[in-house]
Amino acid sequence: MTRTASPKPPRLEQRRIDRTFAGTVADLFPSRQPLEIEIGAGKGRFLLHRAQAHPERNFFGVDYRWRFLKEGVLRAEQRGLSNLIFLKTEAEEIIPHLVPPVSIDVFHIYFPDPWHKKKHHKRRLLKPEFFKLLHGSLLPGGLLELATDNFNYMIAFKAALVEAGDTLWSNVRESRNERILDAGVQTHFEAKYTRAGRDLYYMELRK
Ligand SMILES: C[S@@+](CC[C@H](N)C(=O)[O-])C[C@H]1O[C@@H](n2cnc3c(N)ncnc32)[C@H](O)[C@@H]1O
To answer: In terms of residue numbers, what domain contains 32?
Structure first.
């Protein structure tokens, strides 16, 4: 019996940005279009869907864990999505360097790690300084979309929002168990927690 070679999987590129790169996230895309960023994109399920549905917009997903992100990178490559770029990086590191003030249409942050133990709370992403950074990067009318299944973290990040200055936002919407933006599309964790019957908390803040 002769063995046929199985088709080669597409080459997985882990995109690297040179430290000397003086451009912005927008410069990484072939064309200038409204830009959305997902922080902690995980396996990229949400952005893959959104990028396919909105070729007139650009999408940038960051996550510091390559073992999750590589699935998104592979699928974006297989689907030929030129409006979607994933980058393995730390969000707090990349945003101040690659994202100019007043340039982003939407930030998505879904199910950020809650870091349950009190001694680890300092590792949480959603802190007052980070909210200020995101607010400063958004265009007027731009959106920050948040979701969590963790009630205590939701209370904590609401307190962080107040500390950062909640009057910064022109409108705030909240909902329980109902996605506000792009209802019908779920992230990997959102689908998992929905199946488990957990309560999910959503917030949308408009600059
Ligand atoms: C619970 S998962 C949620 C993934 C995805 N948003 C979802 O809903 O399926 C949280 C993700 O955030 C990433 N993450 C946490 N802190 C981060 C940071 N500071 N910078 C980049 N990624 C981060 C983790 O690696 C992980 O993939």
So the answer is: 25-206
